Amino acid sequence: MRSILVTAMLIMVVIIIYKDVVGGSTGTRQQVHNSGARINGSIEQINP
């Protein structure tokens, strides 16, 4: 029973850490979006 409780708590901690790292205004997802937008702007400014 104790091992099941410890496993459940560990899974909850992993989920919380993942949400904090990926989500939010400074998360990985937002940083990738910002980088993509910046690269897209640079590509659009290239003259053929």
How many beta-strand elements?
0
The poorly predicted ranges are: none
Order of helices and strands: HH
Oligomer class: single chain
Descriptive report:
The structure is a single chain. This protein has 48 residues and is mainly α. The chain has helices at residues 2-22, 28-44. It is rod-shaped and about 65 Å long. The chain starts with a helix and ends with a helix.
List keywords for this structure.
48 residues; mainly alpha; 0% strand; rod-shaped
Show the helix and strand layout.
Elements: H1 2-22, H2 28-44
Summarize the structure.
This protein has 48 residues and is mainly alpha-helical. Helix content is 79%, strand content 0%.
